[in-house]
Specification:
Radius of gyration of chain A: 24 Å
Oligomer: heterodimer
Number of helices of chain B: 9
Helix content of chain A: over 70%
Distance between the termini of chain A: 41 Å
Largest sheet of chain A: 2 strands, parallel
Number of strands of chain B: 20
Chain lengths: ~500, ~350
């Protein structure tokens, strides 16, 4: 909470020369690039996501199930890794267009984020009723007309939700735009902070970015409500997959394979090739040390975040109207806040606090204990909490919501006390949610770049930081080992998500 | 004279001290050992809240609840749900989805040995013909089976009072009636004091010994099914339970009482009632008898076939609607004029509003 009050209060800090310089020269660029990036990614993911979702949910073609599943794979690829890989590829084939520009960044980010739209749109398409399609057919609408006039409008809340999520992630992106040299708000904040050493201006820029983010958050939450509303209309009969001619099958498969090939297969194969044949980095002790660091950090943080989310969700369940609950709603907005903004919001107050303690100690006892929080794991994990608490608490909440309050009451009338209820009913039923909440956060932290690189303790390297550093030093090929590890870790939650979706479909 | 359960002037309220929102006020109700009580009322009348207060889920605002003469709830004290020795069957059954049938049933038997648990579970499963389902999970059972599992789960620990919250509302109509009487028979065999909450009067009539009619947080009438149907104490009860229409009564100067269908018999009239100015007479469909010989005629305006009988809606003298049951071989057309006569054992008269 403190970090955000701090950010909001920054508006009252005096604006200095750098601020004026930024307004005069670069703010427009930052603003323009960030906005175009978010909108562009929104648009591209909308096209890629809805088209693939519609094809895989409407037509019958060979390998439909496999392709529906594989279409999620690009999710395992962090945007900065795919950008690094493509830059490497383009460097070796000079006839390819350069992607170190805004359209390139939009394309790179969209390639790995379209599955957001794909998952949500596909779910919505599959839920749509057969009667509706047949009705449209009787009114002699063509397949394409049905798609444009019935399917899409009906799935609109889900699609908007997916597109907004993708756009927010694009807005929060740091690694990709930094690497591709596109000046946006996030890189601007970073540059002002570390390049110009002007913390005040960096904070002020963060508040500005935060305001834009909240607009997106508002859209997202609004469409989420709509989704919930739509879910109430349950349909009776499921749609059959349409049989199509062989030529059309070929076209459908080709279209579906396009995002998959560019978003996963090409970069992944390239990474493996580099890693095995060209990389100068060996799988030595130093590398394993970094792997260890990453796993250790992600494991501890994910565990702490899991415990906090369990507490938060239980408080919510027990008193749905308490003040803590409202407060939690604010805190769990963290996922929408760009990494550098979280970093600055966390680091500055703690640094001030550290300095204050030291000054007091020096003036009173002539003794300094050094920095207590800054540059420690504590502050890094604290920042992770802000950023990832939402992810895990949403997973746990959905699990907890499936246990009706009447179940608790029933257990009580049977003489069970709170501990027994937790042990015998809640824990067994929540096991999967707890595990997936933990894993998703674990992997997110493995991939996380800006927070880790800014807040990590001195000399503590992780896979994501290592990969990015090597790539920034023009040693893209050498970054492949670390990148592969991250991608492999990223495949786990994709499998989890798929399992969830399939599980849900089997139940219906 | 020892009552199993006594509810004394109970009130329930939500909200803070300044802004109390009363949902139950001055509830009085009691049950003898092994008696089956019913709380019947329209949705939103507070009947489930009353049941939850008895179970111990709600703190009460004033009054008290006594079990075997010992106070279990009052304004200051609320014995925890776990210690009340009450079983409860929930509307959606609330079976534990992570446990199979036998674990669900034995959940309340925590301090028993394995053998005791097993014997008890087997006994209960046989009691409700579910021995084949012991290893199934709740999702694999039909609605009726789930309901029976919920019932024996509540009975497993031999509770002193069983509470049932709309237990039959999710059951298909075709098996509901037999299930209601089966469950009643079972509870009577086990001679367990029970309270059922429902909005369905047929369920209440078939299931309970004693019915309390609730409306807007108050109990309007407590009594046996027959009394509630034939001697409702006010217009709400008369309206809510069973069908009926009201006929205006004209008070004459010579002390007699006239209805459009003839004079009332003075000896059947209640003195208290006759002092009031404007009166109405309740006519149930079974108070109006169809007789082709009768000189009093009414016109059929609607009819409903109910198998053994017809429910006719008639219009008498072009302005008074009447309801009448007639055996189903008396099939009259709409618009036809048929003979009727009154056969009222007991007059139910209310002040006209």
């Amino acid at each position: 909470m403190v970090p955000f009050i701090f950010l909001a209060s920054s508006i009252f800090f005096p604006f200095n020369d750098n601020w004026i310089h930024i307004i005069d020269n670069v703010l427009y660029d930052y603003f323009f690039n960030s906005l175009v990036l978010a909108l562009g990614v929104g648009f591209c993911t909308f096209i890629m996501g809805t088209v693939t979702a519609w094809l895989t949910s409407t037509f019958h073609f060979p390998f439909r199930k496999l392709i529906s599943w594989l279409l999620l794979m690009p999710l395992s690829m962090p945007a900065y890794i795919i950008a690094i890989t493509y830059v490497g590829i383009i460097d070796s084939f000079s006839f390819l267009p350069d992607i170190r520009n805004l359209p390139g960044a939009i394309f790179m980010i969209s390639l790995v984020l379209y599955p957001y739209v794909y998952i949500l749109a596909r779910g919505a398409f599959l839920e749509q009723s057969k009667e509706l399609y047949e009705n449209a057919q009787i009114l002699s609408a063509s397949q394409l007309q049905i798609f444009l006039k019935v399917s899409i409008p009906m799935a609109r809340p889900s699609i908007i939700l997916g597109v907004t999520l993708a756009a927010m992630e694009a807005l929060a992106d740091f690694g990709t735009v930094e690497f591709l040299g596109v000046p946006t708000f996030t890189t601007g904040i970073f540059r002002t902070w570390f390049g110009m050493n002007d913390t005040v201006t960096a904070i002020q820029m963060s508040s500005l970015l935060l305001t834009i983010v909240f607009v997106f958050v508002f859209i997202e939450q609004y469409s989420r409500k709509k989704v919930r509303y739509d879910e109430n209309i349950k349909t009776q009969s499921k749609l059959n997959y349409k049989i199509i001619s062989n030529k059309n099958k070929f076209i459908v498969i080709t279209i579906c394979l396009l995002p998959l090939t560019f978003g996963f297969i090409i970069p992944f194969v390239q990474l493996i090739y580099w890693s095995f044949f060209l990389s100068n980095e060996t799988w030595d002790n130093e590398f394993f040390q970094i792997v260890n660091n990453s796993i250790f950090l992600a494991f501890c943080s994910a565990l702490i975040i899991l415990i906090i989310s369990v507490l938060v969700t239980y408080v919510k369940r027990l008193n749905p109207n308490s003040i803590t609950n409202k407060f939690m709603q604010i805190i769990t907005l963290g996922y929408a806040i760009p990494g550098p903004v979280v970093a600055i919001a966390v680091l500055i107050p703690f640094a001030t606090f550290d300095n204050f303690i030291n000054q007091v100690l020096i003036s009173k006892f002539n003794y300094s204990i050094g920095l207590i929080f800054s540059g420690t794991f504590f502050i890094l994990i604290f920042a992770y909490c802000i950023r990832f608490l939402t992810v895990s608490s949403r997973t746990i909440k959905s699990g907890l919501d499936s246990i009706s309050l009447a179940t608790d009451d029933a257990a009580k009338t049977l003489g069970a006390n709170t501990q027994t209820i937790l042990k015998k009913i809640h824990f067994p039923m929540l096991k999967t949610s707890l595990l997936s909440g933990f894993l998703i956060v674990f992997i997110d932290i493995m991939k996380e770049l800006p927070l880790t690189s800014i807040l990590r303790p001195f000399n503590f390297n992780t896979l994501s930081v290592k990969a990015f550093e090597l790539a920034s030093d023009e040693k893209i090929v050498d970054a492949s080992n670390a990148a592969i590890m991250i991608v492999l870790a990223g495949i786990i939650p994709v499998v989890l998500i798929t399992k969830n979706i399939l599980g849900k479909r089997n139940k219906v | 004279m020892n009552k199993k359960l006594i509810i004394n002037d109970l009130s329930l309220a939500y909200g803070d001290n300044d802004n109390k929102n009363k949902i139950l006020s001055n509830i009085n109700f009691d049950l003898d050992e092994s008696e089956i009580g019913c709380i019947l009322g329209p949705s939103g009348c507070g009947k489930t809240s009353l049941l939850r207060a008895i179970a111990g889920f709600e703190d009460i605002f004033s009054g008290s609840i006594l079990k075997d003469g010992i106070c279990i709830s009052n304004k200051f004290e609320n014995i925890p749900v776990q210690n009340r020795k009450m079983g409860m069957v929930f509307q959606d059954y609330a079976l534990f989805p992570n446990m199979d049938v036998k674990s669900n049933v034995s959940f309340g038997l925590q301090n028993k040995t394995k053998k005791e648990k097993n014997d008890r579970v087997n006994y209960l499963l046989e009691l409700v013909n579910l021995d084949k389902c012991r290893n199934k999970f709740p999702q694999e059972l039909s609605g009726g089976e789930q309901q029976r599992v919920a019932l024996i789960r509540a009975l497993a620990a031999s509770p002193e009072i069983l509470l049932l919250d709309e237990p039959f509302s999710n059951i298909d109509a075709d098996i509901k009636e037999s299930l209601v009487s089966d469950v009643r028979k079972l509870l009577k065999e086990l001679s367990i004091t029970s309270i059922i909450v429902t909005h369905d009067q047929n369920e209440a009539f078939n299931f309970a010994d004693k019915i309390a009619i609730m409306n807007k947080g108050n109990i309007e009438q407590v009594g046996k099914a027959y009394d509630i149907y034939h001697r409702p104490v006010n217009k709400f009860v008369a309206d809510f339970v069973g069908l009926g229409i009201f006929l205006p009564i004209l008070k004459k100067n010579d002390g007699t009482f006239e209805t459009p269908l003839g004079a009332l018999e003075l000896e059947k009239l209640d003195d208290e009632m006759t002092k009031l100015e404007k009166l109405e007479l309740l006519l149930r469909p079974d108070d109006v008898i169809h007789n082709d010989e009768s000189k009093t005629k009414a016109i059929v305006i609607e009819k409903q076939f109910r198998g053994a009988e017809f429910l006719y809606k008639l219009l008498y003298n072009e302005q008074y609607p009447l309801l009448c049951y007639a055996p189903s071989h008396h099939d009259h057309k709409i618009g036809e004029s048929i003979g009727i006569e009154l056969d009222i054992e007991h007059y139910v008269i209310f002040e006209k509003s």
